[in-house]
Fold this sequence. Notes:
In chain A, 36% of the residues are buried. The model of chain A is unreliable at 1-19 and 119-131 (pLDDT under 50). Chain A is mostly helical. Chain A is built from eight helices and no strands. Chain B has 241 residues and is mainly α. In chain B, helix 6 packs parallel to helix 8 (192-205). Chain B has ten helices and no strands. Classes of the chains: A mainly alpha (217), B mainly alpha (241).
Amino acid sequence: VINLTPRSHVLGEAQPPRGNSLLRLFTLSVPFVARSRSDRASEVEARLRQMVSQHVEPLWRFLRRLGVREGDIDDALQEIICVAARRDADIEPGKEKSFLFGTAFRIASELRRKGAYRHEVPEEAGGDPQDPAPGPDELTEQAQARAVLDGVLEGMPLDLRAVFILYELEEHTMSEISGLLGLAQGTVASRLRRARAHFELAVAAWQGSSIRKEGMR
Amino acid sequence: VKPPPRLIDGGDMRARLLRSARDDAPSGRSRRRATAAIALAVGALASRSTAALAAATMTRSLLVKTLLGVGVVTLVAAGTRDAPLTTGTRVVHPVIVRPHAAPAIPIPIPIPTPTPTSTSTSTSTSTPTPTPTSIPTPTSTSTPTAPHPTATLADEVALLGEAQRALEAGQTAAAFAAIAAHDRRFPRAMLGQEAAVLRIEATARSGDRARAQSLSRAFEATYPSSPFRDRLRAIRGDPAP
């Protein structure tokens, strides 16, 4: 807020001639505008640095587990930061993480629509889990398990997947997920239930497939 | 709702699969890119704040011009205060002359540069009445209809700020409306160049790039030494000189 109260009012001095009012405005407002611009940029930058410092790791994991290709995650992060810079004034103090995760989810959704995913799986496949078996024997056990998990998650609709990974992998409470994704807690509970059912079926399908493959050898 | 136990805490295949994702972490390169993105985002943000930037970058010229305007006003006001009033003399409130008034492009109106002498003449304080029986008007130095200079500039800044915010929000129609309102209210605006640049930017963002280029070239022809030339190049997508 620009305080245009003449200094003479504050100090109880005599009123200056009326003709000086324009000069007074400029001596007050021009430095203010110039200073406020640089101050604002500094404030935004400091806030962004804090947000990135605190949340870049969970954000990266969230995007990765939502299925964004590793080569695209850095670009997605950059986009999130640009959005946060533009919307800085709209982000309530204390709600930074919620804003970042909500933005990340939207960007991941857009990337899925554009097909920029590890494997494009149509939404309709959500109720019919695919066989995610990777197969290559040279994979280490850990890497193989990770590849299977990717396959299982890629068959899961994105709205279920977001809740699932925030609960099961990031170990957030349902209340926290509700805040992060802007969902009612009942919706979070419902999506988690459906996601777990999907996960259960997909893992069972993979295990059955693995057993069949073993039997064929 | 009681939260279900987490699958990852179990001992079955589901837990094993989920635990395989525990090592997910960004690389050092990803962290550095995210940090670098902050500076880019803030830089982009600053370049978008055209209205604020306008006031800042125009400080020098605006201040000089304003001081000139203030000088004119002060001189005239002092003259009117000190001049003895005689019966049959009507005091005319001095008109504020803005020698730097910048018209919105593409209307390159020649801008006269009045001298203090000519200004004093144009704001002559005496208008003799034809009959000595006429009643003298009050000697007030203010006219109710005359806009206060501070209100005028503040209103200009407010309208252009509104246009800038609309642009940032992607609402080009609202931006055009605010710029048009500015043009209507301030035909000889102090921030005419700023309004013109905003209009060009709004035109570009609305998708009419050919029109934006045409307007920006007209602007540069009208204001060859404008501090907004770099900004216009960026809007046009021209390489830096």
